[in-house]
Amino acid sequence: MTDRKINIDSIHIDNARKMSQLTQKSRIPARPGQSMTTNLTQKWSSSPKVAHHVSVPALSTKTSTSSHNSCSNPQCDHCGSVIVPAPVATLPLTDAPSISIGNWEVFTTRKPILNSQDTEQLEKTLGFPIPEMTFGHNKVQVFKLSEDRSIEWSIDFNAIDALKMVRKNVDPSELLQVSYAQDWVNARQHRKGDEIMEIFRPFDWSYTSDYKGTITSEVPMTIDNSKAIPTSKLQTGSILFFNDMILFEDELGDNGISLLNIKIRVMKDCLLILQRLFLRVDNVIFRVYDTRVYIDFEKLEVIREFKRLEASYQEIRLQINVGTGDPRALMRDTAWVADHCKEVFKEREYVQLSG
Amino acid sequence: MVDLDQCLEQSYEGKLLSEIVVEQLCFSFKELLIKDPNVLHMRTPVTVVGDIHGQFYDLLEIFKIGGTPPQTNYLFLGDYVDRGFHSVETIIILIILKLKYPSRIHLIRGNHESRQITLNYGFYTECLTKYGGSSRVWELITDTFDYLILSVIIDDSIFCIHGGLSPNIQSIESIKVIDRYKEIPHEGPMADLVWSDPDIELLNFQISSRGAGYQFGLNVVNKFLSENKFDKIIRAHQLCNEGYQLHWGGKVVTVWSAPNYCYRCGNMASIMEIFDSFNGPESSRFNIFDASPSSNQEYLKFIGSGMVDPSNHQQDPDELDEESQKRKEFDDQFFNEYFNGIPKELDRKAPQVEYFL
């Protein structure tokens, strides 16, 4: 870091714009929920030690004019109406909407990718290069509070915990290889005077991870494949809260894509989280790993479903009508690919929480 | 010959040029590039620009902060297309500028300047969408990519490439002999120049976990610099949150020029302004910038910010009492002013809410 001074001096030319942004921001009335939300979600490493001393009224579908809900971001101070887009959802790129329903609280955070210091530190901890775009501060958290406002149960989705489950120090022969790897190796061997070079830090470069969210709870989840997520219930009722974010993304050196995305939607009596790991290695393989978490606020039950879907590149390609102008567009469509992969593993877990 | 000034004027406004005009531009562009050697020499002062990736409005921002050609000499390190929404506009304006000021602006080939890669990462799809389902413009433009140069040497002391070094390249001579007028191959020196990455924990070359491609270390860099009597290597290719990154105390420099990459990374970008090659504190600087206001509008298209369309859940305006109604109008106006400059269709548009299962 000291070298930076010797050689190159960096300057920020957009100070003026930042100033004007700050000025504009300061004109926005401070909202009571704001500071709490940011405190809550500032540190990606923090365990959910949250001071809950703010009263959380149950949310009615009709937003009352007098309500100033600590947790639910979108409300305006003056009239209680939902502000879209919320002021915090603009630049600088921090965005932390949240909502509470009864004893349940949902927090989401979206921030820029990790800076070089955080990246360096995380790579040291993990022992392999992290994805090009690692949104290490992004997270989705759901808390179930008990009557005394302490946390009874929680689930948290974040990129760091997902990356911790990526396999490292793998025998190179077990690793996925890009389609032209063999040609590449052969081309190399024909060069004279070429010393043998080993694979550097062999790790699962596809960032495949069985991550299903980080649960903090006294009550363990039990495997129970008879419990199904009630899709019919999820198809009715209006969505009160929705968010969609990326936890990490990497283009695999132009050999495809590895993308961990998470979506959440909250209705008045239940919520659904879908975390999807999408992997495409060009001319090799497709993988879709889905984790769905269904929470019923009334029955106090949580169902978590984990699915591994897989197909070879060829299998997917054969299902695309080549007559269409841009066949590869479908290969970028995660939902379409998920529908056309084979299920290779499925497991459901269940927990019943106490009132 | 087309009227370059007219094309430039249209392009600066973000307008698309017709297929016929693109064809003529591409032809002249190839005619110009074929005369350039694989390794081109430039003199300071020069401004080095990293990956743009179709972020056209950020490119205009670069011209705003770094000076418009021909007032500033520019060296672009590649990756003009894919990912962003305006690959066509970006590459076309660069082609026109190159045609108009051939000695003031130079374009190096990046790994995305390739038919294969652009099929997968957005440029092909963008061409189809913008030119009525025809892939002709994509063909014309990707054909010109085969003519782009591979590297530049500034003042005989700074070596500039898109990606990095190759075990097959000990000296500049080995770059000069590459037959570059082809699609970027998967292996060999030409591939390594656009794909390899530095790794500060390494000393030598190592193979990537993917089974193809290299990472290079300090010894490789030292040897290359001393054998060719260079001071440093400037390259792009890797996203950095701060807009630039110095490896091994600045022997290798990464310049990244796509702010808020893909309209969601929230990263800074920079251009590297090199004034002379004495390697002093005043010799160069990074001019760091954030996403341009126009690019931010595109960012807003991307955000679904966790809130639901108020019209579904809010009280009907009729039900509001007079005072609340007044407040609501005030708020509307207030936030409209806050989002001043955002086009009407984006303004207060509810985020997309999805009934996913």
UniProtKB/TrEMBL annotation, chain A:
> Spans of biased composition, class Polar residues?
34-47
Specify the protein name.
Protein that interacts physically and genetically with Tap42p, which regulates protein phosphatase 2
Family matches, as InterPro entries? Phosphatase_reg/MetRdx, TIP41-like
According to its UniProt entry, this protein's organism is: Komagataella phaffii (strain GS115 / ATCC 20864)
* Region annotation Disordered: where it falls in the sequence: 21-47
- From the UniProt record, give one GO term of the biological process aspect: negative regulation of TORC1 signaling
Q: Which GO terms describe its cellular component?
A: cytosol
> Which PANTHER family does this UniProt record tie to the protein?
GAF/PUTATIVE CYTOSKELETAL PROTEIN, TIP41-LIKE PROTEIN
Q: Could you tell me which Pfam families the record lists for this protein? A: TIP41 (PF04176)
Family named by the database record: Belongs to the TIP41 family.
UniProtKB/TrEMBL annotation, chain B:
Protein keywords: Hydrolase, Manganese, Metal-binding
List cellular component terms (GO): mitochondrial outer membrane
Q: What is its EC number?
A: 3.1.3.16
Question: Which Pfam family would be a valid example here?
Answer: Metallophos
The name this protein goes by in its record = Serine/threonine-protein phosphatase
Record domain Serine/threonine specific protein phosphatases: where: 108-113
Provide the family line.
Belongs to the PPP phosphatase family.
| InterPro entries in alphabetical order | Calcineurin-like_PHP, Metallo-depent_PP-like, PPA2-like, Ser/Thr-sp_prot-phosphatase
GO: which molecular function terms?
Answer: metal ion binding; protein serine/threonine phosphatase activity
Please cite one Gene Ontology biological process associated with this protein: glycogen metabolic process
Its UniProt entry gives the catalysed reaction(s) as: O-phospho-L-threonyl-[protein] + H2O = L-threonyl-[protein] + phosphate; O-phospho-L-seryl-[protein] + H2O = L-seryl-[protein] + phosphate
Which EC class, in a word? hydrolase
Q: Can you tell which superkingdom this protein's organism belongs to?
A: Eukaryota
Name its species. Komagataella phaffii (strain GS115 / ATCC 20864) (Yeast)
